[in-house]
């Protein structure tokens, strides 16, 4: 007898592409299972005229999906990991993290081809405080202007509005096969210029802790190195109690079984800037250590100050 599995996904083109990729991978291993997508509109999808940092709160793109999981309207959900709060709702767990896509950010230009070539005061489109703060740290003269919408919407705004460049995640561009379609010049921003968001480039497949059938199925998609790296990053984020309203970045890599975690906290204008790099073997211990070092440098004062003024 065929069993049907309902998969929750945001309605955006990227989210659906990611969800269909996960289903295709599972279908190869479990041909007897029937998969169906339940499209869910989240708060983050509904509010498009305000930057995410001003909307505030955690789980802007996952709360409604988690509700559907808890209410058993869906069996598992596919998220972009960077959208998933460091604290999951009760009764839920990350069932798998597939192999991570490129975690870097991409700067797409209207006319020039390098960050250094942008004129003084050039307008950069991004609604991410993390991206804005790091770009301002490198180029304090830049003007940051909020931009929201899907990939194609932002690329159209780059051409039609007063942007000199916009920032997008490489992972989304690659998953949507957009890199070959972009007519403008672009560069991948190395970590020395723009450290990625926690979990960027990774997918989170979330399920109920009580659903052992789904858990046993999802474990086939687990990538151990991605799990180790993202666990370190998310431990860092949780220890700093950070969200999209704070310029926090974190990226971990695994080399020869050794973890390296880079963590960053900045003021919105990029003038106060703390960064730590450390190696270790235990992802949670490493995340806590980097967070504590950032706190000792003054990260907590930045975070609290932004919350008080928010």
UniProtKB/TrEMBL annotation:
<feature type="modified residue" description="S-(dipyrrolylmethanemethyl)cysteine">
    <location>
        <position position="244"/>
    </location>
</feature>
<dbReference type="InterPro" id="IPR036803">
    <property type="entry name" value="Porphobilinogen_deaminase_C_sf"/>
</dbReference>
<dbReference type="InterPro" id="IPR000860">
    <property type="entry name" value="HemC"/>
</dbReference>
<comment type="pathway">
    <text>Porphyrin-containing compound metabolism; protoporphyrin-IX biosynthesis; coproporphyrinogen-III from 5-aminolevulinate: step 2/4.</text>
</comment>
<dbReference type="GO" id="GO:0005737">
    <property type="term" value="C:cytoplasm"/>
</dbReference>
<dbReference type="Pfam" id="PF01379">
    <property type="entry name" value="Porphobil_deam"/>
</dbReference>
<keyword id="KW-0627">Porphyrin biosynthesis</keyword>
<dbReference type="GO" id="GO:0006782">
    <property type="term" value="P:protoporphyrinogen IX biosynthetic process"/>
</dbReference>
<dbReference type="InterPro" id="IPR022418">
    <property type="entry name" value="Porphobilinogen_deaminase_C"/>
</dbReference>
<dbReference type="InterPro" id="IPR022417">
    <property type="entry name" value="Porphobilin_deaminase_N"/>
</dbReference>
<feature type="domain" description="Porphobilinogen deaminase N-terminal">
    <location>
        <begin position="5"/>
        <end position="215"/>
    </location>
</feature>
<dbReference type="Pfam" id="PF03900">
    <property type="entry name" value="Porphobil_deamC"/>
</dbReference>
<comment type="subunit">
    <text>Monomer.</text>
</comment>
<keyword id="KW-0808">Transferase</keyword>
<dbReference type="InterPro" id="IPR022419">
    <property type="entry name" value="Porphobilin_deaminase_cofac_BS"/>
</dbReference>
<protein>
    <recommendedName>
        <fullName>Porphobilinogen deaminase</fullName>
        <ecNumber>2.5.1.61</ecNumber>
    </recommendedName>
</protein>
<comment type="similarity">
    <text>Belongs to the HMBS family.</text>
</comment>
<feature type="domain" description="Porphobilinogen deaminase C-terminal">
    <location>
        <begin position="228"/>
        <end position="295"/>
    </location>
</feature>
<comment type="function">
    <text>Tetrapolymerization of the monopyrrole PBG into the hydroxymethylbilane pre-uroporphyrinogen in several discrete steps.</text>
</comment>
<dbReference type="GO" id="GO:0004418">
    <property type="term" value="F:hydroxymethylbilane synthase activity"/>
</dbReference>
């Amino acid at each position: 007898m065929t069993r049907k599995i309902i998969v929750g996904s945001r309605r955006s083109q990227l989210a659906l592409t990611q969800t269909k990729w996960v289903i295709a991978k599972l279908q190869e291993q479990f041909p007897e299972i029937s998969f169906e997508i339940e499209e869910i509109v989240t708060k983050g999808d509904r509010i498009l005229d305000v930057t995410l940092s001003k909307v505030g709160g955690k789980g802007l793109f996952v709360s409604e999906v988690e509700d559907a999981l808890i209410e058993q309207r869906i069996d598992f959900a596919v998220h972009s990991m960077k959208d998933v709060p460091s604290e999951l709702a009760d009764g839920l767990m990350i069932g798998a993290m597939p192999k991570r896509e490129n975690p870097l950010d991409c700067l797409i230009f209207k006319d020039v081809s390098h960050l250094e070539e942008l004129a003084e005061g050039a307008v950069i489109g991004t609604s991410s405080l993390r991206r804005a703060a790091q770009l301002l740290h490198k180029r304090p003269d830049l003007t940051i202007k909020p931009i929201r919408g899907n990939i194609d919407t932002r690329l159209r705004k780059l051409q039609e509005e007063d942007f000199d460049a916009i920032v997008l995640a490489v992972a989304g561009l690659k998953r949507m096969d957009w890199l070959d379609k972009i007519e403008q010049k672009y560069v991948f921003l190395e970590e020395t210029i723009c450290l990625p968001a926690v979990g960027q480039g990774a997918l989170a497949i979330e399920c109920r802790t009580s659903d052992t059938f789904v858990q046993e199925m999802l474990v086939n998609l687990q990538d151990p190195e991605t799990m180790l790296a993202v666990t370190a990053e998310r431990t860092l984020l949780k220890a700093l109690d950070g969200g999209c309203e704070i310029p926090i970045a974190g990226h971990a890599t695994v080399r020869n079984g050794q973890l390296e975690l880079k963590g960053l906290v900045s003021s919105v204008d990029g003038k106060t800037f703390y960064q730590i790099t450390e190696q270790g073997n235990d992802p949670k211990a490493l995340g806590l250590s980097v967070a504590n070092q950032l706190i000792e440098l003054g990260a907590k004062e930045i975070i609290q100050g932004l919350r008080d003024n928010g």
